[in-house]
Amino acid sequence: MSQNDTKGIWKVISASSMGTMIEWYDFYIFGSLAVVISTKFFPSDNPTAAFLSTLATFAAGFVVRPFGALFFGRLGDLIGRKYTFMATLLLMGCSTFLIGCIPSYETIGFFAPLLVLILRLLQGLALGGEYGGAATYVAEHAPVGQRGYWTSWIQTTATVGLLISLIVILVTKSLLSDEAFDVWGWRVPFWVSIVMVGVSYIIRKNMHESPVFSKAKKEGTISTNPLKESFGNRYNLKFVLLALFGATMGQGVVWYTGQFYAMSFMKTVMNVNSSQVDELLGIALLLGTPFFVVFGWLSDKIGRKYIMMGGMLLAILLYRPIYQKMYETVNLEQKNIVSVGRSTEINEAKKELHTITKNIYEDGTIVTKKTAASINDKTLKANMSSEITVNSSDKWLLVFLVFVQVLFVTMVYGPIAAFLVEMFPVQIRYTSMSLPYHVGNGIFGGLLPAIATYLVSNSKAKGQADFYLDGLWYPIIIAGICFVIGMIYIDNTKKSMD
């Protein structure tokens, strides 16, 4: 590969990755702020129901991703990769910005969650068309024998988008008071996206069409009916189903367990301080992200299959021990209190008097409990919250445990773009690869936070001692089925994309 070729492929990677990263940022900012959003767009009289409703709305964006894959995948195979994922970028950016503009439930009532749901669905449609276009575009520029390496850079964008969403939230929180962030500051990360989208649009506008697609178009060999040729052809449909049930289904649940469920678990089950969770998750993501490229590169050398299957197997075997260890770090029954403090503050925005009790434990763990009373009628315990700030050593233990889960993610996700684009011919590649990817990630993966949280809540209500582990049965079973199918039917040999 010459220096000019390398420079050219880096331009392709940079332009594609920046846009895709911004779309992931837009998509995941909702999940990163799920705890806050549940108090803004849903009734506040039942916090658990409000949070589950928020997760359900979050999941709705995943459910429609396959429809976006079909719609935009078809366009990508008909008119080209470039213009299709420029359209998805604009749709995603505008939807995200508008979520940050919706008035709260207290202001417009039922219309608040309805508008959020509509915009969330538009986000899902946009992302359904984005990933397949970006992965196909990069793969069709990459040299033979190096597709795993070059497409793995696109694979980093989902995690980088999540990481940037956490950074933007942390910076916004640091610049504002807790009260200001609660009232309006949470909207800032949504508003910021419109600026990033504008910059990315300008960059993408100057990109050239994929050389492989341009050649096919010039020769008159592009598909006239991508949907029919992708799913109406029994031979091609067989590979679509294998891609779904032998790879992307398991990859989807591993991805969302290792990043989103880990975050949700620490915030809602372990009750760890939200900002501290964002910080330690951000560190783990930063440490783990380079391994997407490592495993993408390695898949060029030894094949895609065993790396992806290995990541699934490790996740299946180690999830329960990992989450048990995570939960034990905040087990207060094994810790001794050394001091107790109490203070009060007034929240003018909510007209509440907050009584704050702070328990400091021998190992440095801090538990902060907040009881709210109405200023107007002196109602006691209108609501109560409790959060844990873990000590330094436990914090780094949690960073390590999340980092291990991110490694599983990089193993299953790093090689998968190259794996998918190599399965299908150029004429129907965008359509054929997009659907199994977004069903695997959007349906099986996207529903994971809501399903796992429900399983944990249900087990806790029944009084089970290890209730906090029951949410893991969903990813373990799905990944287990995918592992068996993938090991039996996936071919480990690298394929031509001609």
Automatic annotation (TrEMBL):
This is MHS family MFS transporter. The keyword 4Fe-4S does not apply. CDD domains: MFS_ShiA_like. Pfam families: Sugar_tr. InterPro entries: MFS_dom, MFS_sugar_transport-like, MFS_trans_sf, Sugar_transporter_CS. Its main location: membrane. It is found in: Cell membrane. It comes from Flavobacterium agrisoli. PROSITE patterns: MFS (PS50850), SUGAR_TRANSPORT_2 (PS00217). Keywords: Cell membrane, Membrane, Transmembrane, Transmembrane helix, Transport. The keyword Cell membrane applies. Residues 12-494 form the Major facilitator superfamily (MFS) profile domain. It is a multi-pass membrane protein. Coiled coil: none annotated. The chain crosses the membrane at residues 24-43, 49-72, 84-105, 111-129, 150-172, 184-203, 239-260, 280-299, 306-323, 396-421, 433-452, 472-490. One of its GO terms (cellular component) is plasma membrane. One of its GO terms (molecular function) is transmembrane transporter activity.
